[in-house]
Amino acid sequence: MITKNWNLLLGMGLASCLPYIASANLIVNGDFSAGNSGFSSDYTYAGVAGTPAPFSGNPNTLWDEGTYSVGTNPYLFHYLWASFGASPGNGSPNMMIVNGAGSPVTVWSEDVSASLVLGQTYKISADVANLYPPPVGSGTTPIAPAELKFSVDGTTLGTYTAPGVGFWSTFSTTFVWSGQAPIGVLDLVTTPGGNDFALDNISLTAVPEPTTIISGALLLLPFGASTLRILRRKQSA
To answer: Do 138 and 167 form a contact (C-beta atoms < 8 A)?
Structure first.
């Protein structure tokens, strides 16, 4: 009877970890798998690769400053940009591709307040890449790289400038939710030449992360097994 009760308690303890194990990204379309949906932007959506630029009519879709699209390769939207794919580990081939605006307006934002808990710590992260000029070799220096400000309801969480051109790097920080909304990304650079970038894998998760919870649960398993053996020996005696 004791052994059965312990089995039940151990099972319940591990089961209590399952909501953390299954914890999902709270950003609706952070990998842009759903295309141009699930987020807001003060930039102009320029359409799919191969369509004329919305203001100048240039054959390059993202020729104009202050425009963006969602696609698989920046080069398909502007022949002067680097050619590369979505961030590694992204289940979607898509990314948000941006020609920086001439004024500091919001690139991307989402109101996730309904999903968050007051006083809870959260981690926000995003992958960023510069697009121009195309890299001739490793270490190419971007022209006027974007300086992205990550914020909650205007309160700065951190700023980030990606190094190099044509490869991904990650911004990451934590904050305590106090009820503000929305979460946003603003480009502080307003230079028309350069200032071209891509975003991918925008993520918002509760802290501690699921791996921490799982590790803690696994550490309990040897203790649980040892306890079961002791209880069995006592029961047999």
So the answer is: no
DSSP state of 28: T
Could you tell me the pTM of the whole model? 0.80
- Residue spans of beta strands (DSSP E) within 40-178: 44-45, 67-71, 95-99, 106-110, 121-130, 148-152, 155-160, 169-176
Residue partners of 42: CB distance under 8 A and separation at least 6:
101, 105, 106, 107
Residue 40 tokens read as 């807001």
Tokens coding 127: 């992958």
Of 216 and 66, more confident: 66
User: What sign does the dihedral 135-139-142-143 (CA atoms) show?
Assistant: negative
The per-residue pLDDT for range 180-211, each reduced to its tens digit, is 889 999 999 999 999 999 999 999 999 985 44
Which domains are present in the chain? Answer: 23-207 (2.60.120.260)
- pLDDT tens digits for 70-87? 999 999 999 999 999 999
Nearest to 170 by CA among 106, 209, 124: 124
Residue 67: φ, ψ to 5° = -120, 160
Which phi and psi (to 5°) does residue 61 adopt?
-55, -40
- Residue 52 has phi, psi (to 5 degrees) of -65, 150
Higher-confidence residue: 232 or 81? 81
The span from the CA of 111 to the CA of 102, in Å, is: 25
